[in-house]
């Protein structure tokens, strides 16, 4: 059976559901995406290794060629949840609308794998002097468990790694950290006709959110890095769940939020500041407040401005390397000894929302850049590059 065309592969990836979410009712396996990629890459001659990270969650490491150096083209196989009613098209069907392809994961970032395959196809009949690795991870949109497992295993990957997150084809060498946190309040339910019959977890949470907003304002006054488009740390109150009926005093309430620290901000010090605000509120409302991380913090990322990969990417894209506010798996690949850069065709402005899309005009330039990166790192010996 012939390999599907580029557009067919792109559409198949979009159609394969792979939501990763902190809420169990939304969370899905990423196996359908991994199985597609393993089949396609295997047919092209790649050696494919699937690693189970948790039940229903997998990484794929596909390699072509062998040796110590080479290039890693990396991405995550999962997407965020979606509200189909807010989409004007089917989120799980690739739809061409004007000058763009619309679909969940088209930008962030399953479509990148189809672009990587398209880039390497015409090169496979040439001798690879260094290996090309295509890495697909699980759960980047929640726990980053796939990338963490790779870093914990400590297995070297390649000389350079490019992560195809949405950057508008501008190289990114710096990003903020990511903390995803949860606060649980246990109060006492009771009949709403008499407030003395209970202790409202929802009213206590209102005060908690006020303190978090106060800390956010304080940190934004104290910390600033002009290299970032959003130069201050951010704190987003992401989702809240509490109570069950209007005529019952709310006995339980939970809040999940994320905090994006700048390089130099210590996650544990930030958590200690939050705990210091919560303790007085527990006494004031006579409730129990539990607080902790949903997942370990993602470290801030910085690749040296004079790294070979940064210089090569700047030359190929025509853009100087920049900083972004969102987090990626870059710190974990960097821990494995890769010079690491974030570079992909999508726009972060349309990620995580209805109508996520990829501009058609980005497809050809992306394929060309990826192909040149493969030629630089895999078809040319490292000593030949150093003599240039």
UniProtKB/TrEMBL annotation:
Gene3D superfamilies: 3.30.70.360, Zn peptidases (3.40.630.10). Its EC number is 3.5.1.16. Its cofactor is Zn(2+). GO terms for molecular function: acetylornithine deacetylase activity. Keywords: Amino-acid biosynthesis, Arginine biosynthesis, Cobalt, Cytoplasm, Hydrolase, Metal-binding, Zinc. SUPFAM superfamilies: Bacterial exopeptidase dimerisation domain (SSF55031), Zn-dependent exopeptidases (SSF53187). The keyword Hydrolase applies. Residues 175-284 form the Peptidase M20 dimerisation domain. It comes from the Bacteria. Belongs to the peptidase M20A family. ArgE subfamily. This is Acetylornithine deacetylase. It comes from Ectopseudomonas composti.
């Amino acid at each position: 059976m012939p390999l599907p065309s580029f557009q067919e592969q792109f559409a198949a990836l979009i159609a394969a559901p792979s939501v990763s979410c902190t809420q169990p009712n939304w969370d899905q396996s990423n196996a359908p995406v991994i199985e597609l990629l393993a089949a396609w890459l295997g047919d092209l001659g790649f050696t494919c290794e699937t690693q189970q990270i948790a039940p229903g969650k997998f990484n794929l490491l596909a390699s072509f060629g062998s040796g110590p150096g080479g290039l890693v083209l990396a991405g995550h196989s999962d997407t965020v949840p979606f509200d189909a009613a807010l989409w004007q098209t089917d989120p799980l069907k690739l739809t061409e609308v004007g000058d763009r392809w619309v679909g969940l994961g088209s930008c962030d970032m399953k479509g990148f794998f189809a672009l990587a395959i398209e880039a390497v196809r015409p090169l496979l009949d040439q001798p690879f002097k260094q290996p090309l690795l295509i890495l697909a991870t699980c759960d980047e949109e929640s726990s980053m468990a796939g990338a963490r497992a790779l870093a914990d295993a400590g297995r070297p990957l390649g000389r350079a790694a490019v992560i195809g997150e949405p950057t508008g084809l501008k190289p990114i060498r710096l990003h903020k950290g990511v903390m995803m946190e949860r606060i649980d309040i246990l109060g006492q339910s009771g009949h709403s006709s008499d407030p003395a019959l209970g202790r409202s977890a929802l009213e206590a949470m209102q005060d908690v959110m006020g303190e978090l907003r106060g800390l956010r304002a304080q940190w934004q006054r104290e910390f600033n890095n002009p290299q970032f488009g959003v130069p201050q740390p951010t704190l987003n109150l992401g989702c809240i769940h509490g109570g069950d009926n209007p005529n019952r005093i709310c006995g339980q309430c939970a809040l999940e939020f994320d905090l994006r620290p700048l390089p130099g901000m210590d996650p544990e010090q930030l958590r200690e500041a939050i705990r210091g605000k919560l303790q007085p509120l527990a006494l004031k409302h006579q409730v129990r407040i539990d607080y902790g991380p949903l997942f370990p913090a993602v470290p801030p990322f910085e690749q040296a401005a004079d790294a070979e990969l940064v210089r090569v990417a700047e030359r190929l894209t025509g853009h100087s390397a920049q900083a972004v506010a969102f987090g990626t798996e870059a710190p974990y690949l960097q821990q494995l000894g890769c010079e690491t850069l974030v570079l992909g065709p999508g726009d972060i402005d349309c990620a995580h929302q209805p109508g996520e899309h990829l501009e058609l005009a980005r497809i050809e330039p992306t394929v060309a850049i990826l192909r040149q990166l493969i030629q630089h790192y895999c078809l040319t010996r490292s000593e030949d590059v150093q003599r240039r």
